[in-house]
Amino acid sequence: MAELDALRSGVLAALAGGRAGSGVDTVGRVCRACVELLPVDGAAVSVMADAGHREVVYTSDEVSSALAEMQFSLGEGPCFEAFSQGGPVLHPDLAAGLPPAWPVFAAQAAEHPVAALFTFPLQIGVVRVATLDTYRATPGSLTAAELSTALQVADIAALALSGLLGGDRWLDGDGRWMEGAGMRHREVHQATGMLIAQLDVPAEAALARMRAHAFGEGRPLLDVAADIVAGRLRLDREPR
To answer: Domain residues of the chain, as ranges?
Structure first.
């Protein structure tokens, strides 16, 4: 497909320029192209290390942004499934039934104009580092040709992400998580560290406790984390 060849060439040219931060701009270009080349209404790319280390690099629209934040707040969703399994997660009709791996996310996603979700893991070399999340407002499967295109776009998105290795420094050369200055979830990581010390629990349990409080109070995880960091909120080991 000529469009894919042009997209790949454009990404390579951008990376060859070596401008700091060019990875984010180039990832955005790939996301926008994804929406143009596939029957989807939005796309997002998030770098990941595990359920507690995830950063949204780019979202194409407000719905994609809401879905990305929702997954991070809940700690479940197609991005986590695709990242852990290493293969595409394709749900062409959410109304047909809640996926057993992420029922809460699916139920909340239904409150938005989202009828289908297609998510693809991204690898740099042999290291899995991110996901490409797409949605469409109407139900329907991807054809074999469309799935092939999606997989090629995912490969190009991974190529674009390599620009972050020398730019924003979100990832190091081995694909490990880095504390970059551009991280939108910095306060979540700070709050997790504070809870580890306060509650004497491992990082996974600290993040789970914060997520449980956010879910129970109907608040965004980012807001709860900000309150913990600012000293406005103190959590016990177990919900009251």
So the answer is: 2-164, 186-230
Measured from the Cβ of residue 37, the count of other Cβ atoms closer than 10 Å reads: 17
Contact 82, 131 (CB under 8 A): yes
pTM over 0.90: no
> Which residue is associated with the tokens 């700070």?
190
Q: What is the CATH number of domain 186-230?
A: 1.10.10
- Residue 19 is classified by DSSP as -
Cβ–Cβ under 8 Å, residues 94 and 116: yes
CA 214 to chain centre: 19
CATH code for the structural domain at 2-164 = 3.30.450.40
Q: Name the most confidently modeled range: 55-69, 155-169, 196-210, 217-231.
A: 55-69
pLDDT at 177: 41
Identity (one letter) of the amino acid at 135? Y
User: What H or E segment, with its residue span, contains residue 127?
Assistant: strand 127-136
